[in-house]
Amino acid sequence: MASQNSPAAALARPSSNVRWIICALLFLATTINYVDRQIIGILKPTLETELGWSEIDYGNIVFWFQAAYAIGLLACGPVIDRIGTRLGYAAAIGLWSFAAMLHAFVRTPFGFSGARFLLGLGESANFPAAIKTVTEWFPRRERALAAGILNAGANVGAIATPIVVPLLTIRFGWEAAFIVTGLLGFVWLLAWLAFYRPPAEHPRVSASERALIEADAATQPQKSVPWRRLFMQRPTWAFATAKFLTDPVWYLFLFWLPDFLSKQYHLDLKSFGPPLIAVYLLADAGSIGGGWLSSALIKRGSTVNVARKTALLVCALCVVPILFASGASHLWTAVAILGLAAAAHQGWSSNLYAVVSDTVPHGSVASVMGIGGAAGAIGGMIMAQYVGRTLESLGSYWPVFVWASSAYLIALAIMHVLLPRIGETETR
């Protein structure tokens, strides 16, 4: 049995836990990111009535957000890899918080498209910066859990938005909702700049915690791969393909779920809060639970390959019942189906992000995250146009849910072909 002062004990019980404070900051940033992102979906029925938007107008507004998101993801990854997460994250949240507040001062679909474009550029850096931070601050055995926790911020943001935004809108008008939520980002920015430093430079990191953080350094090269060469690597294509196929399902939740509840069950700004909160509470559980599952399997002796793919398969199977959501006769039956799918997507994402940290050198993590995120945003652009036109012509979400039910299983099959063994850095 190892003594309390042995190296093994130090790695198991570090005397500081700064990495989890960093994880909490990443969680809060992602929460704010999703509040700013989802507010347009919550206000869709209100803005359509007050400003006279059509379904195609709204689809175009979402399209321009995702176009900017794709462009920003391709650009921000190499920048963050070069300048680091401290400055990269600060610049990103400053831009997207400014853009969020700008929505309060526009009135036309063109104006909203411009504000959403700026928002997409800023928000695109969130996950590349966050996952690079996790890769730098956590050993492999903790990364999926850390990614799950920060990813849970998306669900907390999605829970908070239908509570806070209707209250602000009813009391002060929809403009106030954009201004107040935008200000939150600047509060986080001050905290980030005051506290964040890289692990090797952070004054509060103990020697034992630094040893834990660096436990996998020998098995994962730190040197970055030239950006163009990343497009010739299997891990890049595996991640990008999975994001292209599955991210549009999450965008469907963010931008159209309130509208689905409004059309299908006649809910409004005052009444769709509880169903949305229920969906995203389940998504929160899925985000942390999915990350916990693969981390627990690794701790119990499974290979990284088996642990990650088992968790991804479980999540993919749990999305399949979304096929029946549009035909559910009762509101809460639909909420249960949609909540299960949302939980599965977030668990899927937690493990997908961990796969990047398993297979890509530290110096290229943000770049690969950016490439994959851009692929997901392009998929979301296609989804925005498809849903808008489907609703305009058919008035039904059923064709969209049919597609969503199979996307994850197809993505996992492609990932398995491209990455038959996950566990070693495969980018060369």
Automatic annotation (TrEMBL):
Membrane topology: Multi-pass membrane protein
Keyword Transmembrane among UniProt keywords: yes
Residues in coiled coil: none
Subcellular location: Membrane
CDD domains listed in its UniProt record: MFS_ExuT_GudP_like
Record domain Major facilitator superfamily (MFS) profile: where: 22-423
Domain of life: Bacteria
GO molecular-function term, one example from the UniProt record: hexuronate transmembrane transporter activity
Keywords: Membrane, Transmembrane, Transmembrane helix
Cellular component, GO annotation: membrane
Transmembrane segments: 61-80, 87-106, 176-196, 237-257, 277-298, 310-328, 334-356, 368-388, 400-419
Protein name: ACS family hexuronate transporter-like MFS transporter
